Amino acid sequence: VHGQADQNAKLSEEEANNLVLEHRGWAESIARSVARAWNLDWQMDALDGAAMEALIFCSRRFEPARGIPFKGYARKRIHEGSTDQARKSKGWRKSTTKEDQRARDLSVELFTVFPELREGILPSTDEGGGGEEDLRQSMRQLIMSASLLATKQSMEDPLPDDLVDYKRVVETMAHLEPVHQLLLYRVYWDGLSLRTVATEWETDGLNVMREHKVLIAFLGKSMSHRKVIPRPKVRPGLKPMAVKLKKDGSKGPFSDVLTAGAER
Amino acid sequence: MTTDSNDPKKIRGVSRNKGVDATKAVGEVEGTEQVSGIKGISRIRGVGNVSNVARVTLGNKERLLALVTEETNKLSKSGMIPASQRSVIEKAVKMVLEASIAEESQKKGAKG
Question: Taking CB atoms and an 8 Å limit, are B49 and A42 in contact across chains?
Answer without folding.
Answer: no
